[in-house]
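Input sequence (217 aa), recorded before submission:
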Amino acid sequence: MEPRRTAAARALLPLLVLESLVLVSGAAVAPEVMAEEAPVCESATAHSHATCEAEFEYLVQRFNMTRTPANTYFAPVFSSSQLNADGQPVTNTIMELQPAGTRIPWLRTNVATQLFLWHHRGAALAIHALLPSGEYTREVLGDPLRHPGAQFQLAMPYMTWVSTEVLSDTEYVLMSGSAVPSFSRLDYDLANPVELVAEFPKHEAVIMAAYDKAASN
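Predicted structure, C-alpha cell format:
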C-alpha cells in the first residue's frame, strides 16, 4: 500500500471502530455524554463496590431513563424484529434503576409473558411472590459475593402477584430485565390490598408490610 493510502487508512480506523460500536449498541451517544466522566463515590473501595446518589443521577441522565409511577427508572434496550403469532416482538429487554430503600407494593403483569431479571450493580433486591397455590416465596436478586444467598439471575414467577424491595437504605440497584414475549414496563395491574388479603389470608402480614414500607418511602 502506498504511504499516503496507509496514512489515510490509519486516520479512518477510529471512525470505523466508533461506527461499529454505534451499530452494535443500536443508538448513537451524544458527544457531550461520551466525554462526561462518571462520578466517583467517596465511600466506594475496591472491595465494597458501594454506590451513591451521584452515580444514580448520572445513570438516569446517561441512559435517558423514564420515571415510573413507583419512582423507579427504566430505559428500553432491545426489541426483537421477529414477531409472534399475535404480532408482538418475541422478546425485549430493558434496564432499570431502583433507588435505595424502594419498596414496590403488589402488582401483576396483565399480559402472558415470562420475565427474567439480571443484577448488575448495587444493592440486592428481594422479590416477594404470592403463588396461585397459596404459597408465599421470597428470592433475592443480587451479587452472591456481597449478598449471601442471592442470585445473579432470576426468572420471575409467571403471572403472579409480586412485590419488590431494595435491601439497602444507602445503595440503589441497577438491573436489567427481558420478557418472552415482549411487554411494556407499565403493563401491570396494581393489587387491591383488601382483596389480596382475602385471597391470601395466611400472608396478611407479608402483604401489608409492602404497603407500610411503600408509604414511608
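Checked by second reader. Helices lie at 3-25, 31-35, 53-62, 193-199, 204-216.
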